[in-house]
Structures are given as C-alpha cells and as structure tokens.
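Quick sanity check, NAD(P)-dependent dehydrogenase (Short-subunit alcohol dehydrogenase family):
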Amino acid sequence: MTDFVARPELGLAWVTGASSGIGRALALRLVKDGFTVVVTARDHERLVKLQHEAAGPGKIIVLDGDVTDPRDMERILAAIEYEHGSMVLAVLNAGVYIPVHGEDMHREDFEKTFAVNLHGTVNCMLPAVRHMKVRGHGQIAIVSSVTGYGGLPTSAAYGATKAALINMAESLKFDLDKAGIRLQIINPGFVETEATAKNEFPMPALVSPETAADRIADGLKSSGFEITFPKRFTYAMKLVNLLPYGLYFWLINKVTGWKARPPVTARHAVDVLKRDPQAV
C-alpha cells in the first residue's frame, strides 16, 4: 500500500521543529485540515503559544523534545502511540542553519548542523518507522532543501546535511514502499524564516512560511515523492546543477556576487573600523 495518504480520521500527525518557521506554519495548517498535531521542539513557551493560536477542527498536543537525543525521541513516540493515539503522519522538519565561510571555519558549526539536521532526522525516523510497520501503513516526509542539489556560498555544513537527507530518502524509499510506509522528501526554495535571515546573498522567489505550509500540505496529499516549491526557482536550480562545474561555479558567483566580496575576515575588520575608527 505504497500510495497511503494520511488523513485526520486515520490518526495523528507529528511535526518536529514546530516552534518557528515552516514547522510552526505547517502545524497550524494541519490543524485547519482537521489533524490532531503533536508538535515537538526544545522551546516549550513557543510551543504553548502555538497551541493557543491553533484554530480549526483539529488541535495541538505539545511534547517537548530534543531531536539530537535518540532516547528523547523514543520517549515522544511512545507517548504519542500509548497516550494520544496512532501516528499516521510524521513531518521531520527540525533543522538549523549556521553559515560557514571557508576562510573562517569552526568544527562546532559542522558538528551542531550534522547533529540536528541529519542525526536528528534519523533519531526521529527510526522509531516512527518501527511504529508504522506494526500497523502496515504510514507517511513520513523529510524536510530537506534545494541547497541539497548543489553547493552554495556559506552552505558547506547545511547543504551537506540536506544532500544527505535527499540521498537517504531516495535509498529508503525502495524498502519502505514494501512496508506500506510512504516516504517523501520536501525541498523548498528560499522561505522567509529566522534561518534564511542569515543569508548574505540575494534570495530569489522568497516565499512566506504560510505559503510554504500550504504547498507542503498539498504535496502530502499528492502522489509525488518530491515536494518542491516554488517550481520556477527549484526546477531552475535542478537544471543549474546539471551544468559542467566550470559553468556552475561561474554562474553561482555571478548571481550571488560572491567572488567580488572580500574575505570574511576582511569584512569583519571593516565592520570593526566602522564602529571604532581607532581600532586599527
């Protein structure tokens, strides 16, 4: 039953990283669609605020948790299944974006990004698959990004995790299809969130979290493996990544203006001088 589509009358939805951005907007949209939505993040106050704001035939259940702790995710899945009801939909959205500059790299930036974006997804997926296998159906959607298609400035850590998520989902689909578990990958373009506010280059086709939530909710009901939007941008990115590397790097440099920028250390020095002309 690989074409399983989760519906509110069949069970609960679970959204990780629901305290802000896409996760928050999607939780609100799913409530409007009638789902009881379990929301998970580390920020309890934001989750409670989300619970109070939710309006619709569905409702929000708050279960705090840290996706980087596998035991915590096992606890949450047990609480969902044994205290609240069967989970039929999991949207694994939790993620962080830490800009990385090649001339000023720090190990902790890579480690934190991998811990949340990649390992955190695995920590959620394993118990979710195990519970869904018991009843022979379920739907899991993993939030990746078009940055997983190819390297972009400052995305050395973030893009690496998103590329890994795409490959992981593609690989697992073969076996999860046979288990009756529908697996999808979500590859948004640029969405206006706290994370993208850190980007240091133009973001074409920027969409709001609410628009992203609508596109994802529609995609969850579709038969496609990939949910990607806005297509005029994400399909262009797919094509760009088919170019020979020489053309690819030239085009990305031209579009972002990255090659013309001074090294990050020089930019920092300029910022210091602006604040204190006597600093040098």
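Posting the structure with no commentary besides this: Residues 99 and 105 are 10 Å apart (CA to CA).
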